[in-house]
Design goal:
The complex is a heterodimer of chains A (81) and B (307). With 81 residues, chain A is of the alpha+beta class. Chain A has 3 helices and 4 strands. The chains are: A alpha+beta (81), B alpha/beta (307).
Chain lengths: 81, 307
């Protein structure tokens, strides 16, 4: 299976962002992170993708997730339990 | 068949898990995640034995304490969707398709954010309407925002927002602040905070993003309007008890009715502790303590049944 590109839009204090990043690290998923509290261009990109401003927004190969719901993310990444 | 299934991974569920493991009850604990609702708190200063800890670190500590127990089965990343009565006990079904049979259950499923239910709230959710101040406060740099609610969560939201926002209105339904006076002292002297008492939020305005909020000024009975770009809603909680149906008795607010001495519900074999119950005091320490009471009582019940 081709490796999907993973992007997380986050803020520094958001715990669900931290949980998501710890999850990626645990499963050796490489990801690109954008801090949307300071990066206004990426904030706009996040809004265009998710149509909302809450963080985290996770983009897995074009599939967009608002918040960190572990079963959904596992499924999108094809991670077996 | 399990002796006990614990539902929930907050302070109640973890305390229950630790005690059940030490009592060597054959136990499974099912949790979507660990730490409970205060996981989003930036700084918890009343968790007894710890002067100051973030919600995230407290969640980690709780999870580590649970995982250090031997003989306990932990099912995480899963949710209970149904509990049914069977011969000699109950069956517990999860979202991921597991079915567990057990003699007893301890419910520590906690509660979730209550919505205000006003016009614009749902339409503008994530577009200025927010429920997690530590998550979303950084997006409101130099903006004007309102916090609705004057409990501890509301006060903490104001405090989190003061690191970023230009002005923070705090709308209080009554004449009283319900949260801790110590937290209130930290925010009330800040020039950027304006507290509006006797104010009932009525509508949130905006097209693509929030632009304003209308509230009823109760003393004058007049509708007033604030121009702002964010509304943080902290108006209490809704118990996570739907999966029980009418297996246990609940209050009109859907909280599980319990015996405060031993945490028993109306259904023999089911106990409940923490924010999912009718207990009016929503605190990490109380959830943990109530769950401990429940486990000690469950052990007595199982011993009596085993003979």
């Amino acid at each position: 299976m081709a490796v999907k590109e993973v992007i997380i839009y986050s803020t520094p204090t958001c715990v669900y962002c931290k949980m998501a990043k710890e999850f990626f690290q645990k499963h050796d998923v490489s990801y690109q992170e954008y801090n949307v509290s300071t990066d206004l261009e990426k904030r706009g990109e996040m809004f265009n993708k998710s149509h909302q401003m809450g963080v985290p927004v996770i983009d897995i190969g074009g599939e967009i997730f608002v918040g960190f719901n572990r079963p959904d993310i596992e499924k999108a990444l094809g991670i077996q339990r | 068949m399990y002796d006990l299934v614990i539902i929930g991974g907050g302070p109640g569920g973890i305390a229950g898990g630790v005690y059940a493991a030490r009592k060597k009850l054959k136990t499974a604990l099912i949790a979507e995640s660990f730490g409970g609702q205060s996981i989003t708190s930036a700084d918890i200063q009343n968790w007894i034995g710890t002067q100051s800890i973030s919600g995230f670190d407290l969640a980690k500590n709780l999870e580590n304490h649970l995982r250090a127990q031997r003989g306990l089965e932990i099912i995480d990343g899963d949710l209970v969707i149904k509990v049914e009565k069977i011969n000699n006990g109950f069956s517990v079904a999860t979202q991921q398709g597991k079915i567990l049979e057990t003699k007893t259950i301890l419910i520590c499923s906690g509660s979730r954010h209550r919505k205000l239910g006003i016009l614009g709230e749902r339409e503008l959710d994530g577009k200025g309407v927010a429920y997690c101040s530590t998550c979303d406060a950084p997006l409101f740099s130099d903006k004007t925002v309102a916090v609705i609610g004057a409990g501890n969560a509301g006060l903490e939201a104001v405090r989190d927002l003061l690191s970023y926002a230009e002005k923070v209105y705090m709308l209080v339904r009554s004449e009283k602040i319900k949260g801790d006076p110590l937290t209130f002292d930290q925010i009330k002297s800040d020039q950027r905070v304006e507290i509006i008492y006797n104010a009932e939020a009525k509508e949130i305005f905006g097209q693509q993003f929030v632009t304003g909020l209308a509230y009823l000024d109760k003393p004058s009975n007049e509708m007033k309007k604030l121009e702002l770009s964010g509304v943080f809603i902290e108006v209490g909680s809704m118990p996570n008890a739907e999966f029980l149906g009418d297996l246990v008795q609940k209050t009109p607010y859907s909280e599980i009715i319990v015996n405060a001495v031993n945490q028993q519900t109306s259904q023999l074999g089911i106990w409940a502790a923490g924010d999912v119950t009718m207990s009016p005091y929503r605190q990490n320490n109380i959830s943990a303590g109530d769950a401990v009471k429940a486990i000690l009582n469950i052990q007595e019940y199982l011993n009596g049944n085993r003979s």
